[in-house]
Amino acid sequence: MPGNSFGTLFKLMTFGESHGPAIGVVLDGVPPLLDLDVSDIQKELDRRKPGQSAVTTPRKEGDIVEILSGVFEGKTTGAPLAMMIRNEDQRSKDYGEIKDKFRPGHADYTYQEKFGIRDYRGGGRSSGRETACRVAAGAVAKKYLETLGIRIVAYTKSVGNIVAETIDYDVIESNIVRCPDAKKAVEMEALIKDLRGQGDSIGGVVEAVVMGCPVGLGDPCFDKLHAMLGHALLSIGTVKGIEFGDGFAATQLRGSENNDAFYQEGDRVRTKTNHAGGSLGGISTGEDITMRLALKPPSSITVLQKTVDRFGADQDIQVHGRHDPCICPRAIPVVEAMIAVTILDLFLIQKAF
Amino acid sequence: MPGNSFGTLFKLMTFGESHGPAIGVVLDGVPPLLDLDVSDIQKELDRRKPGQSAVTTPRKEGDIVEILSGVFEGKTTGAPLAMMIRNEDQRSKDYGEIKDKFRPGHADYTYQEKFGIRDYRGGGRSSGRETACRVAAGAVAKKYLETLGIRIVAYTKSVGNIVAETIDYDVIESNIVRCPDAKKAVEMEALIKDLRGQGDSIGGVVEAVVMGCPVGLGDPCFDKLHAMLGHALLSIGTVKGIEFGDGFAATQLRGSENNDAFYQEGDRVRTKTNHAGGSLGGISTGEDITMRLALKPPSSITVLQKTVDRFGADQDIQVHGRHDPCICPRAIPVVEAMIAVTILDLFLIQKAF
Amino acid sequence: MPGNSFGTLFKLMTFGESHGPAIGVVLDGVPPLLDLDVSDIQKELDRRKPGQSAVTTPRKEGDIVEILSGVFEGKTTGAPLAMMIRNEDQRSKDYGEIKDKFRPGHADYTYQEKFGIRDYRGGGRSSGRETACRVAAGAVAKKYLETLGIRIVAYTKSVGNIVAETIDYDVIESNIVRCPDAKKAVEMEALIKDLRGQGDSIGGVVEAVVMGCPVGLGDPCFDKLHAMLGHALLSIGTVKGIEFGDGFAATQLRGSENNDAFYQEGDRVRTKTNHAGGSLGGISTGEDITMRLALKPPSSITVLQKTVDRFGADQDIQVHGRHDPCICPRAIPVVEAMIAVTILDLFLIQKAF
Amino acid sequence: MPGNSFGTLFKLMTFGESHGPAIGVVLDGVPPLLDLDVSDIQKELDRRKPGQSAVTTPRKEGDIVEILSGVFEGKTTGAPLAMMIRNEDQRSKDYGEIKDKFRPGHADYTYQEKFGIRDYRGGGRSSGRETACRVAAGAVAKKYLETLGIRIVAYTKSVGNIVAETIDYDVIESNIVRCPDAKKAVEMEALIKDLRGQGDSIGGVVEAVVMGCPVGLGDPCFDKLHAMLGHALLSIGTVKGIEFGDGFAATQLRGSENNDAFYQEGDRVRTKTNHAGGSLGGISTGEDITMRLALKPPSSITVLQKTVDRFGADQDIQVHGRHDPCICPRAIPVVEAMIAVTILDLFLIQKAF
């Protein structure tokens, strides 16, 4: 029942339910003397927050973060850095529909069985709301990685069967789907709006790239770079799969096609291709670390579904509320955050030796 | 540079290089009073060992395991269970070809950069040989899981673009590809042999299923069931991707298609479909836990490749030796083992609460 | 630089500086379905808070705790339980005296060297104020241990060279020194007041007993019961030594004097004496777990002292403020708390097997 | 039931029973490129091995260590370093006396209750024999610390009530008690021999000093330097207490007596006295780290004792065999080893930030 902490040297512990007093995160192992302002955190939270566009939930939450400790005169001190977001919008509401009924695709049933108790208000701990804490943690990690020249970019690669064909990083934040292909972004937006109109939802693929990562991060044999990233990213509720480099496509390749030939570029050993996605033997090569994540369609839909209640009786259910019809746009800062905390942790571990 | 240990309550630490004196594993947190004989371990190791069939490396290694501690009068005592396999076949050999040249697709370059030193004989620590230790650990975990009625099955789902169409568990161990489709197994075998003749290799997909897992395993939020499995399985050197349930296919589904409707079956809440692959909110549902792994084509090929050496000079390389042209058949016991140790650890954690 | 978290299954992570916005703690791994009210926490905090008596600092802090998560309808949910105490009394103050000068006996110098930055206001992270978070965590652990019949008692055994001669648990909370010997308590109180008058301070010994602990807690070989307790208790800033059972006195005994003879009492194996202090081979025997802690005299004194400043210059220093002349009375709830979190963690680990 | 591993970045996992096939240790997180020869390990093991002098057990064990992995061409590779010692002297013996009877002062009863099974041959896992693995691990850590100029010395401070009065490090290894006072060493030796003649045993105090430790090791708030050392050293079976600096004596001091005044010595801030024992706020000051350990009299004595057996019947017991009448001389390398692994781990953690 632990499991709410992550990391070895850069550790996070998150807390909070969607409808409790607050959510937050404590970071233990923040390198000292890092310039940090609350706006560094808020900026990332704003990219995740609900109500930011026509393709996200219209729910309005300020998600104003407060730094409670660990920063002094604009710099981190090396002491734990705690951040808290008060929950708003907690009007007394009728939760009757979900108090006893198990929503399909949600954790209602498994939480009830595992814990014997469940904060049924809006999903409680299992709510996607906990990802705000990851974003806050990631914002701190990103600040440090920036000083090392490491940059992380994630974007919507596909929504349903609409796939981005061009990858222009400059386009990502200029459309509300966060797609690097401006033309496909328009199609994706239309599809999402259409599904929302039907009370339904759709999945998608998020692609992420880490640029500027030094050679040598990741540890044999269980803490390989992509094993750690896999752990981090598969822990995001909506993620059902992950692949690195060519991933599943590599299963159809021959070794002679998939091996990346080495060549020398100045002082640096590089590879001509990057089928491997930036790691060999679980250790970063210095090439871009590339990965793709499978995000399932959000489970909260108003379409009528079959389920049972806590008492074993058959029930119909419609999950009302203001939900995301496609989670990709809001998941992107969460993906970047989890990559950032993982890379920072591996960087610190490597620095120790 | 740690990273050679895994688990919270059921912990393993592995050691050993492919051409050093021995490889082995220590298990800390073995439940006491479990019946265990060395043959329980050897049986699983024999499924992984080289030279077992016409589609694996012809290298002959006995891989005879010795239990060094933790078992008394046929039962585990709760003390650390150490197992060791002496390396054989360590004839003095000319490693000139790989001593200074970086083999494409291998960890030679990244180990050299990370550690500043590298046991170049046969890959050293980065050799696939370390997976024998995982299999030994998994054999102990499996014995315990059996007492709980939990069963793990893995098999070759595809080799290159040949995909199993029928899934018959009884067929798996009856063909050397470990494919559950007897007809496709013949095609796969032919393809592998053909590629070996060419000095090349091929990737494949391994599918795995956990049956009989109780509801409630996996811990929110970072230690979700599939995050832990992802960590465990992506740490196998050859695995480049993993997906649970419908995985990447779910990205093209609507919520109304992907949600699994609940129904009551006797005392038990079940789902009519299993798109989720056995977990909701990161916690097991009691349905089969299903996953697919992308295995890259083995990097050791005799096809001529371009590379560089430690001194920055361009080099041609041919990786001679007796290598696996497709790793799926031998990876299967490794996959099962990593699943077993992960599930056992989560089971023990859940039992504590 | 991590180190602000503790525990394996029952984990705590604390945060906060003495003069920052807030201090707090997050508990991960709280067993669900435990009855818990904020008053359970506040009650323990009130035992630790400053200004409670004539022998503690007269500083007034409400130390009002707020539960931010993990409790629903009066019961723990198994989700992280976060608690926060807002800092009060943060008037703008002249810290000139300690901003650049290193206070003898304090962590000013070591923090400056370790982190390269230091929140000099009232000690920052190194302030004894962080122990309030431990007390809050311990209050939750105690509630659970109570349901198991485990009780923890700590008291002032000596102040300077005044030693309690009788041990009456009922007397402890009835005097402000928390001494189990009412007569000696009067002497201790007089000594403490006298030293405060002189601007000086005094050390003491705190003794603690765990009653009702089941047989079998503690894990060979590194996580022995008293090793875990030692780790927990030596992490309290003021503690300079710990002994279990007869401790240092046992070094003068013969084996025939120190060994505790076993006898049978009903179903239970017991020992006639308890020189061992409740553990054998690092595992609890079911007898009382007994220990004594050496608490140094508080470092904050107004007596003139010699020191240096950050720039290497000799300096005189007088540490003004409202400090504790003897920390034993207020350390007692902290000691109990650390014992409680340790025992609970070991209990859960044992329950897993 | 785990607990057989220790450390965060420099991790050890030990295994083995006194009468099983072998004992050993795996080190994960060994810095690469360290010169290491098997003789570096053997040298330390020889200081611990039985039969080395007239005041230790006459039991003869070669304790020949074999390095199984992690060293290549005389240097560590950063891969796990496994070491194994085969058990000798395992003649079939009559364990009837201890198979069912619980030896007072031993872990027989607690192991039986905790695990439900017990390897009764010579104590099994609870045997002091496991400390050989600690010494092997410590030998590796010491080699690294030497390169940093960190030196660890431990010695017998007292045996029974005979206390060393002079501390001359050069004398320590020149007498069989390992006492730094040559004159008192003679008395100690006589006392130990006398007690052995009586079939009894005696306790003692071991003092240890770490010299040359840089400022800044140890992490607030739970992983303070002396908390980590306390954990490490209290995990040695025979240790019943530990104190740092003035320890329990400080409880009788005033703050004005106990605080160590700072002064500047060249570039370095130093303290005129070292009551604190080398740490402030849990972080090393650069002064000597000093500590004293209470070692109980060995429990194995031939004096007749009262006990019970597994079936609840009263029994007399005499523990025959070849036992140490005073464990201090052989504990010293174990104490040094545990200090070394702890300091190295803290050093690596600090280096990461």
Write a structural description.
- The structure is a homotetramer of 353-residue chains.
- Chain A has 353 residues and is an alpha+beta fold.
- Chain A has one domain: Chorismate synthase AroC (Chorismate synthase, AroC fold, 4-Layer Sandwich).
- Helices cover 28% and strands 23% of the residues of chain A.
- Chain A contains nine helices and 18 strands.
- Chain A has helices at residues 38-48, 96-99, 108-115, 131-147, 169-172, 182-197, 225-234, 255-258, 328-351, and strands at 5-6, 11-16, 22-28, 65-67, 71-72, 75-76, 81-86, 151-159, 162-163, 204-211, 239-244, 262-265, 268-271, 279-280, 283-284, 289-295, 305-308, 314-317.
- Chain A has a five-stranded antiparallel beta sheet, covered by helices on one side. Chain A has a five-stranded antiparallel beta sheet with strand order 9-8-10-16-11.
- The two termini of chain A are 33 Å apart.
- In chain A, 67% of the residues are buried.
- Chains A and B meet through strand 1, helix 3, helix 7, strand 11 and helix 8 of A and strand 1, helix 3, helix 7, strand 11 and helix 8 of B.
Write the SSE topology.
The structure is a homotetramer of 353-residue chains.
Chain A: E1 5-6, E2 11-16, E3 22-28, H1 38-48, E4 65-67, E5 71-72, E6 75-76, E7 81-86, H2 96-99, H3 108-115, H4 131-147, E8 151-159, E9 162-163, H5 169-172, H6 182-197, E10 204-211, H7 225-234, E11 239-244, H8 255-258, E12 262-265, E13 268-271, E14 279-280, E15 283-284, E16 289-295, E17 305-308, E18 314-317, H9 328-351
Antiparallel strand pairs in A: 1-2, 2-3, 3-7, 4-7, 5-6, 8-9, 8-10, 10-16, 11-16, 12-13, 14-15, 17-18
